[in-house]
Amino acid sequence: MEQKMTEQEFVATFDEAAANHHLMVFYQPQINHATGRMVGAEALLRWRHPAKGMQFPSDFIPVLEKNNLIYQADLFVFEEVCRLLRKLINEGDMVVPISVNMSRYDIYGHSYVADIEEIRKKYDIPVKYIHVEITESSAIGGKDLIIQVMDDLHRVGYLVEMDDFGSGYSSLGVLKDLPVDMMKLDMRFLQGNIGGRGGTIINSIVQMCKWLNTPVIAEGVETQDIADFMKTIGCKYVQGYLYSRPLPEDEFLAFLASVDHEPLSASSGMVDAMNNMNFWNPDSLENLIFSNFVGPAAVFVYENGNVEILRVNEKYLKEIGMSRTEQEILDDNPWDNHTAESRDTYRHAIEKAIKTGEEVTCENWRTVCSDICGENKICVRSTLRLIGQASDQYLIYAMVQNITAEKERFMLAEQDENRFKAAFEHANVYAWEYTIATHEMRPCFRCMRDLGLPPIVKNYPDTAIEAGIFPPEVADMYRALIRDIDNGRDNIDVIIPLTVGRVPFHVRYTTEFDENGKPLKAYGSATLVVDQKDAE
Length: 536
Ligand code: C2E
Ligand code: CA
Ligand code: CA
Fold this sequence. Notes:
The chain is of the alpha/beta class. It has 19 helices and 19 strands. Strand 17 (about 490-500) and strand 18 (about 505-515) form a beta hairpin. The relative contact order is 0.06.
């Protein structure tokens, strides 16, 4: 029967427990839920009293903290971890990084980094195999000290994890101030509530970590449902009863030998100089730049063909917001505003930006709906650039420009041109047939209408000359041309000023011959000369 030890017993027997292996370290595996491979483990302290049985940290850690014994306990765990790692290395076994817990009391009045370094060197363990977990509570009473310890840890090369992230309400503030490399989200705070507000909060924390390019480990994961949910929102690392309880050393070694391993993909660093950490800080230079000095811009995450907008600046709202608020835009599924075709164009541009790492520009019509403006069609030119990446999620910076007016002007101009072309083709081309043997001309409908000609014009071209279609000064020249056709000229291409207005027309003839080469008919046309080049 297990029995709880009293506070006095813990304090009085601590040294004895450490010396007699009543204190021991258990290890809980951390698994990539997407691959089933092991990425690391966490070292957790256990106290097994010879008579009273297993004691749990929730009972003795606060006691050790209160009685100034936690530092010794943490160094004990650290040394145990080094001893285990040395054993694995010596035996040539697979080694995974092991996380140790640092109490917030370890930073007061102790030289934590110097002391763990001494132990690590004694066992000659590469620093990459040890991660240090800190809690948000370390920043209680001032951030300076914990930041200094973290800087010291980083200088040596330790990876620092933020334990129990999201359990306190100061989380977001702490996150942007503390230079953590990895986040541990405790799912026990969620209490299975992934569908509701809890899920939304977890989702936004994970999104934010992605934006910061900080890997997230979900801990306290007991069910497949939660692990799956975490995977869908982009957090694949899992520590919890679903995969394994904390295991005593021998069982842990057996577990380690039974699964494949892979490295935890840690921060790879943002592609751009835009310091993402500062980007979220309302007082930071980056935020100031984003809000005030760059043009209309948005930042979004692209994953598996979907787009989720993370931020838009004021100018974006003015440019293409169409009276929507930032929140309305963030809540929207951006694809809803696009036609299928426009979506493809945009997706294609995003994928090109991802592949090339270069700026890619595209133009899309979107239908935007807002309470004030109702439905509007706008054309947006977007210049896209990849600024970050975490697994298959891509962070894209989009500069936008509302080119609706420009587009509409262009379309009008295009319409004008089309109208003109149509007019040109349909109204300003005159065609006719001239029969050489009879000197008869059969005009097209437009010739009849515009020039007042009968269906058959006899004694051509004199009748037309007399009707004033050919002004007197070109009459002789024109008669000569028709004579040429009568005599077998196969084509004519001249510019002749026609009618009293002497409007220049391009006059062309093509002659048709019979089998013996005798000219039969000539097909004439006249088109208005629109371009000076044509007139030359
Ligand atoms: P923690 O660092 O958040 O450790 C995770 C705790 O969650 C462990 O409890 C672990 O056994 C438990 N856990 C893991 N998976 C699950 C799960 O799926 N469901 C549930 N319900 N629980 C799960 P444990 O070992 O009792 O440790 C409790 C706390 O004591 C730790 O929380 C940590 O804050 C502290 N602690 C443990 N070992 C040390 C240590 O060596 N040094 C310091 N300073 N604190 C320690
Ligand atoms: Ca921990
Ligand atoms: Ca934790």
